[in-house]
Amino acid sequence: MTTTSVRRPHRIAVIALPPVTAFDLSIPGAVFGLATYADGRPAYEVTVCIPDPGVVKAMDGMDVVVSQGLEAVERADTVIVTGTGSRTDADPRALEALRAAAARGLRIASICTGAFVLAQAGLLDGRGATTFWMMSEEFRRLFPAVDVRPGVLFVEAGGVLTSAGMSAGIDLCLHIVRGDLGAAVANATARLVVAAPVRPGGQAQFVQTPLPPERGTSLAATRAWALARLDEPTTLAELARHAGTSVRTLTRRFRAETGLSPLQWLLHQRLDRAREILETTTLPMDQVAARSGLGTADSLRTHVQRHTGLTPTAYRTAARIAGAGP
Q1: Matching CATH topology for 10-191 and 209-326?
Q2: Among the CATH numbers 3.40.50.880, 3.60.21.10, 3.40.630.30, 3.40.50.150, which is that of 10-191?
Q3: Which residues make beta-bridge pairs with 79?
Q4: What is the pLDDT of residues 254-263, one digit of tens each?
Q5: Largest Cα–Cα distance in the chain?
Q6: Nearest CA among 16, 182, 204 for reference residue 94
Q7: Which candidate, 118, 180, 220, 295, has a CA 20 to 30 Å from the CA of 9?
C-alpha cells in the first residue's frame, strides 16, 4: 500500500507585545487565513502568542485575550511581530525567542511598530527596514545601526521583512503569500480581504502633497479602466483623457496616490497579470505576453527575469510546485 504524504500548513507565530495595536494584530489571521492551496486546503496556520498568556492591553481600546505562550514560536516556520508600544522595553523572553528563531533560519517579519521589537533583538542591524512613517525619526535615533527607509510600504532584507503602518501590513502579508504560493493565490486572497492587488514594497506610504479638492482625490476609476484593458496598448494621453485631466496633472496625482508613475504602475500590473497567467495556464509564452500586455515573448522573458530572477518557464514550474501542495 502506498502512503501519500500531505503537506501541512505553513505555521505562522504572531507575537503580541503589549500595548498592542488590535488592527495590526488582526491582519495576519485575516490574510493568511484565507490563502489556500490549489485543492482548497489551508496554506497557513496562524497562532497568536505572548510571553504571559491572558488579557493583552491594546492601544486602541480593544484589549484582546491570547491563550498561547511563546512555545508557538518554537513550532513556527515564520514569526511576525505586530504593532506595539514596546519601543525600548520589549519582554526579554520575546527577544530571545526571536533571536533563536532567526538562528534557526526562520523568516521573521514585523508590522508597523513591531520593527522596534526586531531592532531591540538585534535582527535589523545592518539591514534595510521600515516602520510607520510617524515613528521613523524615533526609530532612527534609537537604532542607528539600522538602515531606515521611511518612505516605502515594506522592506525585505535577508529573510527579515518589515512593513509600514496600518494597511501596509496587509501589503506585506500579501507579498509573503505571493512569494510562497504565487501571484494568482495572492491576488485571489487580496480580493477576499477586499484589498488592492499586491502592491510593490517601494510604493510610497502616504500622499505627500495635497490633491486639488475641486478635481477629486482619486484616480481609482482610471486605474480600474486600465486594469480592464491591460492587454491593449495604453498611452499617458489615453489615461489622462479618461481621468479628464492633463498628462502633467495625471502624472503628479498618480504618483501621489500610488508612489509610482502611470507607466511604472502599468508595468507592475502587467507583470502581475503575466505571473498569474504563467501559474494558472499552459499558454505558450507569446500568448502570455500578449494577454498581459507585455508585447512579445522576448519582452516577457526580460521583464519576468528582471523582477523574479527566473525565466518565465522556470517561474511557471516553481510557482506550480509551491502552490499545488503534494
Answers
A1: no
A2: 3.40.50.880
A3: 13, 108
A4: 887 777 889 9
A5: 72
A6: 16
A7: 118
Specify whether the CB–CB gap between 35 and 70 falls below 8 A: no
- Taking residues 283-304, report their average pLDDT: 92
In a 10 Å sphere around its CB, with 0-12 CB exposed, 13-18 middle and 19+ buried, how is residue 6 labelled?
exposed
How many residues comprise the chain?
Answer: 326
What is the rounded distance in angstroms from the CA atom of residue 249 to the CA atom of residue 255?
Answer: 10
Q: Quick one: CATH architecture of 209-326? A: Orthogonal Bundle (1.10)
pTM beyond 0.85: the answer is: no
Q: Is 283 exposed, middle or buried (0-12, 13-18, 19+ CB in 10 A)?
A: middle
Name the band, by pLDDT with cuts 50, 70 and 90, for residue 211: very low
Alpha carbon distance, N-terminus to C-terminus of the chain: 18
> Across the strands, what pairs with 66?
54
pLDDT of residue 61: 73
Judge whether 131 and 164 are in contact, CB under 8 Å.
Answer: yes
